[in-house]
Write a structure and sequence with these properties.
Elements: E1 4-8, E2 15-20, E3 23-28, H1 35-50, E4 59-65, H2 69-86, E5 89-94, H3 95-104, E6 111-119, E7 122-131, E8 134-144, E9 159-162, E10 177-179, H4 184-196, H5 219-228
Parallel strand pairs: 1-4, 4-5, 6-9, 9-10
Antiparallel strand pairs: 1-2, 2-3, 6-7, 7-8
Pfam families: TsaD
Domain Gcp-like: 33-150
InterPro entries: ATPase_NBD (IPR043129), Gcp-like_dom (IPR000905), T6A_TsaB (IPR022496)
Length: 229
Amino acid sequence: MTTILAIETTTELASAALFVEDQMFVRELSGVQTHSQGILPALQSLLAEGGVALSDCDAIAFGCGPGAFTGIRTACGVVQGLAFGADIGVMPVVSLHAMALAAAENSSVNDFVCVLDARMSEVYWAHYQLNGDAWTEMSPPTLSKLDDIQVSEQHAHALVVLGNGLVLPSQLQSHTSVQLMPHARQVAQLGLRGFKAGSCVSPEDAQPLYLRNKIALTTAERAIAKEAQ
């Protein structure tokens, strides 16, 4: 029986999950905890509830991004340390893909455009399609303005999956939308799928998915951005 430990810290909603013996155990961090303070106790609690040791896990799955810089670095650091210590592999999972899976579990459609707030008046987005049990990446994770998201007419029925605080832009007003955030529950499921497909990587390859090369703006750049809004 495959056992997967998972964490998702790319957004303000941090979570952890353990899949063992066809059961899913979940923890969500409270708003008063920082991700770095809360994630290890959450993982320890999950392992205790599931009755397994870290070394019993087949892999650790984690949301590799895109998302908040600090949260992604937290995930990579925690996963690398735990995986090295337990001598197990890791499964990077794109956070936008986790959103698509969450939407698919509660929808009859198979087409998903997933969008997360990237700050600085930009968003991260990707387009996924589910055919049976197989996922196809129609558009890879991209950083752009919300109004620059483009979905072809042949995908007019795609469900738009929005992160917190986002609204449908004008060019997608004909689409149905739902609000969902990346969660460790789906990271675990995608990690399990990847592990069974032989996509597990070594701990040193637990690397973040960054779409923005420049993380911080200078004072002058912030002033220009504010004037442009």
